[in-house]
Design brief:
CATH topology of the largest domain in chain B: Cytochrome Bc1 Complex, Chain C
Shape of chain A: globular
CATH superfamily of the largest domain in chain B: Cytochrome Bc1 Complex, Chain C
Number of helices of chain A: 18
Structural class of chain A: mainly alpha
Distance between the termini of chain A: 56 Å
Number of domains of chain A: 3
Strand content of chain B: under 5%
Number of domains of chain B: 2
Order of helices and strands of chain B: HHHEHHHHHHEEHH
Largest sheet of chain B: 2 strands, antiparallel
Radius of gyration of chain A: 27 Å
Strand order of the largest sheet of chain A: 1-2
Oligomer: heterodimer
Structural class of chain B: mainly alpha
Number of strands of chain A: 5
Shape of chain B: globular
Radius of gyration of chain B: 24 Å
Chain lengths: 458, 257
């Protein structure tokens, strides 16, 4: 009998998934009960008779469906070949097309970020949040029927990242829920909810008991996690066997991803330092006195949008990309795609100076004469790279002034010169990653400034 | 007299707890002031300031995880020798032989969790605008603590001395080669030279400082071990103390003005 070395389904996978569905059934049972207690009704469209039905009915139906799926897993696990609850190939294929290309991935994550902000009133409700959570768990459970997905998500060090995605999603949702509530109150001229009924209470017992309970729960959680999931230990270290791909620890994978677009001196040294420095500078840049000590979005639209863009698509998004989608030879792979070492991706990137001299002017590149003096060589290199140098200087020095005179007039006025320059440069450096991505995708641009002689490539 | 009362009336008990049990208002105040472990807290606090939906509890959880990492880390140090000969085998023994081997799992998962909870704590502090005056400087200390948390995790990543460990550290530390001026493949390293001899080479640059060697080797293991177990934890402990002190001195947990 022919045995598939990469089976999508095995008995233990099906049986294990049964428990995942059990969790979903239980949590949706509670949700259905909550809906029944709330007693909300929904009018059916006229095609279906137009009567009123309780909202809880829909959730009851969904729970019943999940229970049937669960029972199918617990009863049908002995015969994985005949088990038909799999993700269809067309679905896997279309998801992979969306994520195995950095352009589309970044576009989609940016759209999600924009959608979160634009649809915050709709998404940050209890029902919408619960639906999103259900969609995410269902997607995870169905995807786990794929062999390749299990390989990448099931790596012990990647499990916390899957958890982190749920947690970050939850807290982003919670923030918008509370911010919406406060924004509504502020519009009505009321104080934020945090300011209402804010009497002082004694720390013993009101705070110390909470702390005690959290500590006990967390200890139990860590031990259960430790017993269930073994910490990874691969083969003994060998300095001659380089793994493919070689990845930094997961929390640095966003930085490692920047290496695709920038050289190590920028991606590995300057940008990380700028992130830390920029975070430290943040309280001294944000002159907005509002929104101190309570959740709000409307009073701090710009600050929160920029921070969310940095945290969600750029930091968390790039970690997801680096962890789950970068495979052998640092090629992109879909979440359901086999990590084929021989996958080829054409790389044909061109420097700006080559575009300018070779294609633009139809001339040959200026080459520094090795026999001439040091100063003359530098001058030739600067001449050769002048277009890129001008673009870079314009981006970091000229653009802030343009920003100060147009979109950020108010900011420049209130911040003063020095503070505004720091702010503008931090924003521009943050935008430098997406900017270079776009240039790479649109023009196959390798470097704006290419001075490999002195390791100055931008 | 019940046994409980007998114990609470004894000289030993009274020498440890210098106040009656915190059953009434007065003693609930006194317990906060006289107990060393509780004196980080104020006596009373705004009730919305301690609501979990407001604080997310992430700062507290991060601190607790730091304590968990310290305790499990000390236990692991009894079983682990940072040498090429023993490092991997000692970790293997933790998995297969040692009674408290699960400490390694708790330590590793706790470390991952701590990185995440630090981010979430910063996320909350940002979203509530709690970095605004008068708490600007405490945010700065927090960013430094973020850096040290990542460095703690990074240095610990090498210690199992398996393929995952050395290659992750190799990839991560290769960046240091490209440090401007101070890395031997960084822009402007030629600036530091005496009479045409470069001072910055692969045996004297920033990466060498980090690794103690030209590649990830035994010197690196020793260096990371000391950073991971002694140097960074000490720095973090000091910074945490300042961080907490400043929370109190800057007006306690943030609330609407």
């Amino acid at each position: 009998m022919h045995l598939d070395p990469h089976p999508n389904l095995t008995s233990s996978v099906i049986y294990g998934l049964g428990f995942l569905y059990l969790v979903q059934v239980v949590m949706n049972l509670f949700w259905t009960a909550r809906c029944m207690k709330a007693g909300n009704h929904q009018r059916l469209p006229s095609v279906l008779g137009g009567g009123d039905v309780p909202v809880a009915m829909w959730w009851g139906m969904y729970t019943a469906l999940l229970s049937m799926v669960m029972i199918a897993h617990f009863t049908g696990y002995r015969n994985p070949e005949a088990f038909s609850l799999l993700l269809p190939d067309w679905f896997k294929g279309s998801v992979d097309v969306c994520v195995n290309d950095p352009k589309l991935f970044f576009l989609i994550s940016t759209l999600i970020f924009a959608g979160i902000i634009l649809l915050r009133k709709t998404l940050a409700t209890d029902t919408a949040g619960w639906m999103l959570f259900n969609a995410a768990t269902l997607f995870l459970s169905l995807s786990l029927t794929d062999w390749d997905f299990r390989q990448i998500v099931g790596k012990p060090d990647n499990v916390p990242i899957v958890g982190m995605l749920f947690i970050v999603g939850f807290f982003t949702w919670l923030f918008f829920k509370k911010a919406n509530e406060n924004d509504r109150r502020i519009e009505q001229g009321l104080r934020p909810l945090e300011a209402e009924n804010n009497e002082k209470v004694l720390v013993w017992p009101d705070l110390v008991y909470t702390e005690l309970i959290v500590m006990i729960a967390l200890t139990a959680f860590l031990f259960v996690w430790g017993v269930l999931l073994e910490a990874p230990l691969e083969e003994p270290a060998s300095s001659v066997k380089t793994p493919n791909p070689s990845k930094a620890p997961w929390y640095f994978l966003g930085l490692q991803e920047m290496l695709v677009y920038y050289d190590p001196w920028l991606a590995g040294v300057v940008f990380p330092s700028t992130i830390l420095g920029g975070l430290m500078a943040l309280p001294y840049i944000d002159f907005n006195k509002k929104g101190n000590g309570y959740y709000t979005f409307n009073e701090r639209k710009f600050a929160i949008s920029v921070f969310l863009f940095g945290f969600l698509p750029l930091w968390v998004g790039m970690i997801v990309l680096g962890t789950f989608l970068r495979g052998p030879n640092w090629n992109m792979f879909g979440i359901y795609e086999y990590w084929d070492v021989h996958k080829l991706e054409a790389l044909n990137n061109v420097n700006l100076s080559e575009y300018f001299w070779l294609y633009g002017l139809g001339m040959s590149m200026p080459v520094p004469d090795a026999t001439s003096s040091f100063g003359a060589q530098i001058a030739t290199i600067v001449w050769r790279e002048l277009p890129g140098i001008l673009v870079t200087l314009g981006y970091l020095l000229l653009l802030p002034s343009v920003m100060a005179m147009t979109v950020f007039r108010n900011f420049a006025f209130r911040m003063g010169f020095f503070r505004f320059m720091v702010f503008a440069n931090l924003v521009l450096l943050m935008a430098a990653l997406p900017a270079k991505m776009v240039l790479r995708w649109a023009f196959n641009l390798k470097y704006l400034v290419a001075i490999p002689e002195y390791f100055i490539n931008i | 007299m019940s046994v409980g009362d007998y114990i609470r009336e004894s000289q030993i008990w009274k020498s440890v707890f210098r106040h009656p049990a915190p059953y009434d208002r007065r003693n609930r105040v006194v317990v906060m002031l006289t107990n060393f472990f509780l004196h980080l807290h104020p006596v009373s606090i705004k009730q919305n300031g301690i609501a979990l939906s407001y604080t997310w509890c992430m700062g507290g959880i991060t601190f607790f995880l730091f304590l968990v990492e310290t305790i499990t880390g000390v236990l692991l140090m009894f079983y682990y020798r940072p040498t090429l000969e023993w490092a991997f085998n000692d970790i293997l023994a933790l998995r297969d032989v040692s009674t408290l081997g699960v400490m390694r799992e708790v330590h590793r998962w706790g470390a991952h969790a701590m990185v995440i909870t630090v981010w979430l704590h910063m996320y909350r502090v940002f979203l509530t605008g709690s970095y605004k005056p008068p708490r600007e400087f405490n945010w700065v200390i927090g960013v430094i603590l973020l850096k040290f948390t990542l460095l703690l995790s990074f240095t610990g990543y090498l210690l199992p001395w398996d393929q995952l460990a050395i290659w992750a550290i190799t990839v991560g530390s290769n960046m240091a080669r490209a440090t401007p001026v101070l890395g031997h493949e960084g822009p402007g390293f030629q600036l530091l030279n005496i009479g045409g001899y470069d001072l910055i080479t692969n045996a004297s640059d920033a990466r060498f400082l980090l690794l103690g060697s030209k590649f990830v080797g035994e010197e690196t293991l020793n260096r990371f071990y000391i950073l991971h177990c002694v140097a960074i934890p000490l720095a973090v402990a000091g910074l945490i103390a300042i961080h907490f002190w400043r929370v109190r001195k800057d007006g306690g947990i943030s609330q609407p003005l």
